[in-house]
Amino acid sequence: MKKLSIIVPCYNEQETIDIYLQEMKQVEANMSLEFEYLFVNDGSKDDTLLRLKAAANQYTNVNYISFSRNFGKEAALIAGLEAVTGDLITVMDVDLQDPPELLPEMYEKIQEGYDIIGTRRYNRVGEPMIRSFFAKKFYQIINRISDTEMVDGARDFRLMTRQVVDAVLELTEVNRFSKGIFSWVGFNTYYISYENRERSAGETTWNFWSLFQYSLEGIINFSEAPLIFSTLVGLGSCIISMLAMIYFFVSSLLKQNQVPGWPSLVCIILFLGGLQLFCLGIVGKYIGKIFTEVKKRPNYIIEESHCKSED
Ligand code: UDP
Ligand code: MG
């Protein structure tokens, strides 16, 4: 029987873990796969770890890894991918926003020969309007400026073959934007759509500012368009100011009693100064990325773990 490894990142999820496992146990009973759960406790401040320990005692196929602090969901994902041994691997949120009942259908598609079965929400019911609006804009922009296609509404919930996971693990970059990475590796992908659902319990840890930063990560990690943009803007303003210089020079030759050009001078200085700062900011973003890459810090630090397959 094939083994399915399920990676579940958890950050302050004490209320949702038990609900999640109850649901999953029903799905598990109806599928001809050996299930293995790997919960990744991402430095939770509540009783998540205690719940995980209890679950690991209760079920033989529940394992966990616990980080020394909160490293973020991306780190939890990569820790999980590195640790699991299954033939098929899936990543799920613990809050049941990734519907477990899709798993049988996803497995069927894998058997048909697909390598990655992704899921996407076809609507965003229950989400603040402004958040949906900016999410949509983000996907429009990123798909225009990056070669890597990112599907609007695609979740991290996907079922993958071992081959795909091995490919993903070969990307050793520290700045991980997994929506991009999973699409970058390629393979035969099939998307299943479903209606958005709200959290089973607890609260989301994402606010508008963190989502904004997350989308910047996506753009900087998967596109060089901002660099090209800043070059073009710089070039454009150079040309414009050269034309202006010629114009002022000629007009001061032709007319006498030229009024000293304070306003235009100040305008030009401000404009160019602002432009330089803006372009420097863009370049700085990329240099910052290079800095974190060169430091080669680990993505996460494990404080304790419980993986039965290791014993
Ligand atoms: N999560 C995590 N580390 C974090 C934030 C979130 O492991 O720093 C986990 C969280 O426990 C959940 C999943 O990532 O299982 C998705 O988080 P959430 O539901 O808050 O995000 P949303 O569904 O609102 O995008
Ligand atoms: Mg959620």
Automatic annotation (TrEMBL):
<feature type="transmembrane region" description="Helical">
    <location>
        <begin position="227"/>
        <end position="250"/>
    </location>
</feature>
<dbReference type="InterPro" id="IPR029044">
    <property type="entry name" value="Nucleotide-diphossugar_trans"/>
</dbReference>
<dbReference type="GO" id="GO:0016757">
    <property type="term" value="F:glycosyltransferase activity"/>
</dbReference>
<keyword id="KW-0328">Glycosyltransferase</keyword>
<dbReference type="GO" id="GO:0005886">
    <property type="term" value="C:plasma membrane"/>
</dbReference>
<keyword id="KW-0808">Transferase</keyword>
<comment type="similarity">
    <text>Belongs to the glycosyltransferase 2 family. GtrB subfamily.</text>
</comment>
<keyword id="KW-0812">Transmembrane</keyword>
<dbReference type="InterPro" id="IPR001173">
    <property type="entry name" value="Glyco_trans_2-like"/>
</dbReference>
<dbReference type="Pfam" id="PF00535">
    <property type="entry name" value="Glycos_transf_2"/>
</dbReference>
<keyword id="KW-0472">Membrane</keyword>
<protein>
    <recommendedName>
        <fullName>Glycosyltransferase 2-like domain-containing protein</fullName>
    </recommendedName>
</protein>
<dbReference type="InterPro" id="IPR050256">
    <property type="entry name" value="Glycosyltransferase_2"/>
</dbReference>
<keyword id="KW-1003">Cell membrane</keyword>
<feature type="transmembrane region" description="Helical">
    <location>
        <begin position="262"/>
        <end position="287"/>
    </location>
</feature>
<feature type="domain" description="Glycosyltransferase 2-like">
    <location>
        <begin position="5"/>
        <end position="167"/>
    </location>
</feature>
<keyword id="KW-1133">Transmembrane helix</keyword>
